Amino acid sequence: MKKALEISNLNKVYKGGFKALKGIDLTVEEGDFFALLGPNGAGKSTTIGVITSLVNKTAGTVKVFGHDIDQELEQAKSYLGLVPQEFNFNQFEPLMKILVNQAGYYGIERSLAYQRAEKYLKQLDLWDKRDDSGRMLSGGMKRRLMIARALMHEPKVLILDEPTAGVDIELRRSMWEFLRELNQQGITIILTTHYLEEAEMLCRNIAIIDSGIIVKNTDMKSLLATLDQETIVLDIKRTNITPVLEGYITRLIDDHTLEVDVKNSQSLNDIFIQLSAQNIDVHSMRNKSNRLEELFVSLVGSGQKEIQEVS
Amino acid sequence: MSSKVNVIALKSILHKEVHRFMRIWVQTLVPPAITISLYFVIFGSLIGSRIGEMGGFDYMSFIVPGLIMMSVITNSYSNVASSFFSAKWQRNVEEMLVAPVPNWVIVAGYVGGGMARGILVGTIVTLVSLLFVEIQIHNIWVIIATVSLTSATFALGGLINAIFAGSFDDISIIPTFILTPLTYLGGVFYSISLLPEFWQGVSQINPIVYMVNAFRYGFLGISDVSLILAFSVLLTFIITLFVIAMTLISKGIGLRS
Known about the structure:
The complex is a heterodimer. Chain A is of the alpha/beta class. Helices cover 35% and strands 29% of the residues of chain A. The longest helix of chain A is centred in the middle third of the chain and has 16 residues, at 169-184. Chain B is 76% helix and 2% strand. Chain B is built from eleven helices and two strands; from the N terminus they run αααββαααααααα. A two-stranded antiparallel ribbon of chain B has the order 1-2. In chain B, helix 4 runs antiparallel to helix 6, helix 4 (59-89) packs antiparallel against helix 8 and helix 10 (207-220) crosses helix 11 (227-251). The interface between A and B is medium-sized, with 35 and 31 residues.
């Protein structure tokens, strides 16, 4: 498997002395769906900025499919497609022009660019808006436009910085499906997100960055396996007495909501058997929080602050 | 990247730039035509008729080349300054920065856009001036060379201004406080030979004097400065400003953090 992205000892010190990145090492394999997570100000966007040459690095190396951005910048850029966090297209240009011009910057002839623009505008449900200017679009449409723009040169690596921020649930799920399809077609996807559920559902590998340092870099399954306990919330028949479950810690939140801490080694069946023996019916069950979120909080020092934004 | 890729990228930037100023033609193409008409009515017909001849020509004929050049200078400069600064402000300049577009293509694309507007406005102003005065052409090649080099010079100036600008105010300061005074004192409305010797010397350091006079030579065959010196000044400015613009963009000044 080729390495789509290799980052070695990456450092960035901004004017004024703020150290945004402190020696980051990161490798993303070709075809991966990779999550880069971290609290606000952790260095996610700076890392993406350096990879896409929007931020000048202070030290370190970045290679895209083996092409060093210091020596073969244009070659490296040609593999990358970027969907930035902020809307950064010309608000006064029609959508079609935005896409066709973007393709032109990658040396794609206009006739082919128009074909691709039609293809991606249709796939992302923007075809009816093709002659409208960017400022006429809703927030979700603007996000989809930026995805279409990033795909115009058919990049091998697609980098998305908070792509579903401010997007409603239905649209977010349709975007997830679209990104999954792109990944299945062979495009390597690197994603930063505040929605940890998004990372857990989409990504195979993950790096967690905090204060400019990678604090965890592993595959999603291994990471989740390190979680030795999770809390489940049961919607039960109304009761005033906290049910006693042998071997489990329980909390009665209100007269019909019971929280149970479950270790990895424990069985859910056992909980239901014990509740059934006490004539307590369970109507529904859910995880108290996203599993990745619990790990994230434990790995990142400022987790309490962040959890308000991710919940 | 191959030269074909660069040519397509250059054409894309040019297309975008020309489309931009054509889309807002009421703001970009109409005002110069109205302004120049007022100049002709006031300075040419009303006041000019009392001035008599200048440099052997009636006053109206004398000021036509200068007025055309004034429009070319202003429009070439302001087109690039406002377009590039808007791209910075809206951050859509990042569309080019993340793409494999060499810096010289970005500079050439924006300068080409500025030249296109400058020359188009110059053509419109020339056509308007035909309503007021009969235009003679002494040397068409001098006219073409002067207008091309002048528009390139000021388009480069506008680009550098936009790179440094942090607000929309910053792209109006130089045109208001530097460009306009230099243009008005650049021999558009008078021959610098009329000035006292000291002010003639001072005028020699105003680059617009060389541009206006070379352009006037193309129309009327008269100039206060030598053509060789005028073209040398123009080429020196273009090379210097191009190197400065390339250096700024390569270092990412005002563009990359």
